[in-house]
Each structure stands twice: as C-alpha cells, then as structure tokens.
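> run fold TonB-dependent siderophore receptor
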Amino acid sequence: MKQHLFTLSVLAIAVSMVAPTFAQGDQKISKKSKRKAKEYAVENVLVEGKRIGNHENGALGNKAIIDTPFSITLIDAEDMAKRGAKSVRQIFINDPSFYTPASSNTTDWWGMSIRGLPVRNTFADDLPILLYWGGDFPTEVVDSVSALKGATGFMYGFGSPGGAVSYQLKKPQDTAKTNLDLGIRSNSIVSVQLDTNQVMGDDFSYRLNLAQETGTAYNAAEVNRSVASFAAEKAIGEKFEWFGNVIYEDSNLKHEPFQFYLDGYDFVGSGGKLPRVSYDYDDFNVDNSFYATETLISTTGFKYHINENWQAKYQYGYIRKEHDSNKSFADLHNQQGDYSGNIYNFAGILANYFNQLMLTGELSTGAISHEIVAGIGYQKATTQYGPFYYASTADFAGNLYQEQTFLMGDRPDLTLNPVGSEVRQTYGFLSDTIKLTTQWQLILGARHTYYDKEDVDRNPAVNSGYNTKALTPTVALLYKPVADATLYASYVEGLEPGSTVGTRYANAGENLDAQVSTQYELGGKYQAGKLHLEISVFDIQRTETMDLLQNGLLYLTQDGLTTFKGIELSSAYQFTESLRLGMGFVNLDASIDDVSEANKALKGNMPANAAKWQGLVNAEYTVAAIDGLSLHGVIRYYGDTYVTNANQLKVPDYTIANAGFSYEFPLWNRNVTLNGNINNIFNKKYWAGGGYGAGNIGEAINASLGLQASW
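> ok
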C-alpha cells in the first residue's frame, strides 16, 4: 500500500500541475457551478464564531443550522487544521456537552458521549459507520464534522439516544486548487498530505486526497497510517448529476497505553482516591500489542433536478471496517497502582450496505409554503468475528510506576468465522417545514422503520432472530423575531432495538418492542454581527430494560427509566476587531429513576460517566502588527463522574488548557499557512473516566506544527 501511495502521489502532483491547462480555468461558470449556486444560495450560518455554508440535516434536508430545532455543533476542516485536531476529543473541545476519555493516538473504545448519554451513531455522508470498537475517522478526507445532540430516532432511525456524529466528506469544488500539507507532532510523528481539486471541461470535476502519517506519539505509541480518497462529480445534461467517492485507510497503532478498568477498584481501602497519575507511558504498555484497522468507504449516486423547486437524490454506499486486535487492558486494584492485565485478541469485519432515495422540494398551499423532504431506504449491517481471546485469569500483572516487560508469546489468531450477525432496516421518512408566516414555522416529521435481526447463528435448535417496527415522530415550533434569531420548542424520540427475552425469565421468547426514549427541548439561537449565542434546555428520558418480580416469577420488562435534564449555553462575542471571546457550559441533572427491586439501591443515583458540570472559555486574537497572524486558546473543564451506577467511586474533575497560532503569508506566489498548537500546555495529570467502568490515563503535554501551501 505504501508503494502504491508513493506512485499515486507522484501521479497526483503531475496531474495537479498539468490539469489546469485543460480545466477551463478562465472564470467560465460551468453548468454544475450554476446549479450549485442556485442549490445553496440560502442563508449562511455562524458556527464557532464564523460564517459557513448550510449543513445537510438528513431527514430535515439542507438547512441553515439556525433554522433547525435541535442543538448542533459543526466544525469545519479549516478550524480543525488551525487547531491541529485529529481526534474527536480535540475536534469538539469547544463544545461543552461533548466528551470522550480517549486521548489522541489511542483507540477510542466505547467512550464517546453527549450530554452524559453514550453515542454509538456515527455517519459519513449519511452512511452509517461503526466506530465504537475503536479508531478515529481520518480527518484528511473530511470537509466538516457535526454533532447532533440528543435523540436521533427521526433523523437516523435505530441507535443510541445520546446523539450522532456525522462526517461530511470532501467533494469536488468548482475551481481548481491544490493543497500540500506537511506536519510534525510530538514526539516524532511526521505527516504529508496532498489534496488536489481539478475541473475538467464544463461538466466534470474530481478531488484526490493522499496522506501518510508515521512515527512515535507523545504516549510512546507507534503510529502508521495511510489514507487515500477519490471523489468525482459529472453533470449529465441540464438535469442529471452523477457523484462518487471512494476512501481507504490503513492504520496500525502499536503498544498504546493500557485501557484501565476501574469497576473492581478498592474504593474502600483507597478512601475513594485513585492513584497518582504518571505520564511514563512506557511503564503501562505491552511492546508487541497493536490495534490495526482497515477502512473502505464507497458511495455513488445521482441527483435529478426536476425543476427549480424539486430535486431527487439516490445514494448507494458500502462501508467496511476490519479490526485486528492484540490490544492490552488492565484492571486497576488500589491506590498504590497495582493492576492485573489481559491481552484481547480478535479479528472482526463490520460492514454496512446503504440504499436511499430522497425527494426534496417546495410547494405552497395558499399563503402557506412548505419545504418537503421524503425518503425511503434500506440498510444491511453484518458483523463477522474470529475467535476471541481474553483469558479468565490475568496474562500479566504490574504497577503503574514500574516498567511493564510482558510480551504476548502466542501468535494471535486473526482468522474469521462466518457472518455472526445480520441486521436489516427498511424505512421511510417524511418531514414538512410549514412556513406559517415570515416569523413562525412548524416542523412535522415521522420515520417508520422495520428492524429485522436475522437468525444466522447456525443453530437450528435456537431461534436467535428478532424483528420489530416503530414509528418515531418529531414536532417542532420555531419563531424568528428577526432573520438572525430563532426560538424553538421540539419533541423527538430515540430508538434502540428491543430483544427476545432469554430463558431465565418467565416471559422467555417474548419479543420486546423497540425501546423508545423521549426528548423535549426549548432553545434559542442568535448569530449576527458580533454576537453568537445558543442556549437550550432539555429533558431526555431513556427507557431501560429491568427485571420485574411478579407472583414469585421473574420477568424482563422495559419499565426502567433514566432521566437526563439540563441546560446548555454556548456564546462568542467579537469585542474588538482583534479579539473574540467565547464561553460555554452544560449543567446536567441526571438520575436513575425506575429500577427493579434487586437494583433499588441505585434509585436516585447519578448515571455512570455523566458529569454534572462541563465548561470552557476560549479566545482568538488577531495580531494587528503582523499581517496574517492570529492566536487562539481554550481552557476546558471536565466535571467529576462516577465510575458505575452504584456511585461508589468518582473520577476527579480536571481542567486543561490548549493554545496555538495560525500564520498566513505568501511564499513564492503561493498562499502558505503555518499552524502550531500545544495541547495540555500546563501538563495537567488526570484520569479520564469512560464507558463500562473504563478509565484512561490522560493526555500529556504535546505539540503539533503544520505547514500548508495552496495553489
């Protein structure tokens, strides 16, 4: 693959130099350019203190974020490059409600959450991609990343109710441009990326991305990643447009630090205190451990511009992510830092097939106008695993403050068994944004999904299949006192698959319906002039399964309930031409409300990994004396969290600070940008709590420097 990337790099550089001579680069406006100008000539939005274009909102269509009845954070590629952000933790550090314990250059393993709720829903151009087994998405191929907060049943169907992270992939643009990026990161990671966009004639454009990253990270992990992508668009006559995109990433992360588990920690003997944090990462890793992933994303489709008001879009996609794990985990025992550890061996392939047809348009019924979005689709997700190895007794033992010398002696078995899980979803959705007046809008929507888990366990004696169906609505009322402000009230639901009740229960064999969580939200958005302000108050009630004892018999029911209530605020203000200040916080009042008799001790407790407070302040300063130079920084507070629902042990709160600069200047008739960043600038030592009782050693001070030349 590396040889292929080198060859492609040489060809791409040649193409980027030669193609402009053929590319109608004399400001001629192509058919596709005119079409896009009409398609996206709508109100801009303000995100993270600057204006950007509209955001594709799935079942709500292409809307300005200010016109949506949800809380959405969107980070574009320019902002990620400026801050040197590679991991989701770094990408969303300016969003107070977003959290993950995973530092950069570690495997993000089941830890992502929004508003205290776990997030398992990730998408790339609407294609579902399963990332919670580990592995960040390659930012090199991303144009923007958005976080939709709260229940996602209407927008995306079945998933976790915490929210969704959606990656918008880089697409061809209307003018030829090439970017060459060179980077270096602590301790010795070097990277190179070529991103070239070319316009060929009047109706065809393409975008090619090639990237390589290799070296040793700040945490002693060895990084080796290769990324390649190719996207193309072609106008076919006046009404049709074809598009396609292929992305490939090969990543191998070696001897990263342990992921610790804290749920068996001696909280009594330790007085509720965790061990002192050490950043001697070599003391708690296994030299021949690794986590390797191979990702393939391919999507294609057509747009049909019926007339000025209506458009149809068909999209087919296939995503395949292969995991090879020889990853190390450890159970932390006491305040002295003793632990016992295991190597986790497995191979797995997670694949998704995606078909969707959408129709969007506008119509009027008298004085009332409607924006219609309708769609039907079919998805199939399969998983295929090999033999799992995780010993019942520890593979090794050690102490946080002593070097770990264990090596995995056996060669991991990374063969694959036949497909072990197959889930099909067939769905349809419809939304109508009803513009009652110039100020009042009503949004009505519904999604119907048939969920079918196939019986593929190859055991004829046991029916492991399961199916259910659900209709999930959304209702929202929006009031726009002025064009740049929106007040809204919304209701939406979250859907999680039910299950077939197991044999230990009196209602064994019963198919439980889809678990429906509810969300009510009131909010306001203002983004004009010097001020950007967003505030929301939310109430999310998550349905849980629970054991119920009736007449001496045990039943599995869906009567459990966990409540997440809170308020979230984000704002930014341009105090002077040079200085912009921002702040944000989320205050969460979460509780476990309805539980089984056996778990009554948990009633009223705070859910695990949900912080009561998170907050931040940030700043950006343009240096007037040096043209093109700006400084930026953020101070981020993470509140303390309980390790488990039993609320016996807390992971302490902590505050970190990041700072950086961006300097734009001309060089040899090229536009050049130099970005430099320091993360955890004061080298704060901390524990970061995660899902399922996990806890990670924090991210030590580290730096990055990137140089981008554009032509």
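Confidence is low (pLDDT under 50) at residues 1-53.
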